[in-house]
Amino acid sequence: MSEPFKSAKIVLKSPLFFMFVGLCMSQIQAAPPARAVAAGFTVNTFSSTFDSTQVDMKNSLATGFKWYLSQFFDWGVIPASQIKLNSDASATISTSGITINQWLYPYDGSGVPDYTYTGLQSAGKKVVGTDTSWVGTVFGGGGYFEVTVKINAPHYPDGGPSCWLMSIEKMANLPSLHWPGQAVGYQHFSEIDMFDFHDVVAPQYRAFVRELYGTLPMYNIAQTSNFPHCYINFPANNDLTASHKYAFIWVPATADKTGYVTFFYDDKAMGDSVSWSKYANQAAPPADPWRLGFLDTQHLVMVLGDTYTPGMTVQLVNVWQKADNTGGKDNVIPVTLPAMTSQTVATSLPAAGKSVANNALSYAIDKGNLIVTVGLTGPHALEIVRPDGSVATRFFGTNSAKYFLNHKMLPAGIYMLRAIAVSGNKAAKLLVWY
Question: Alpha helix (H) ranges present in 130-264?
Answer without folding.
Answer: 168-171
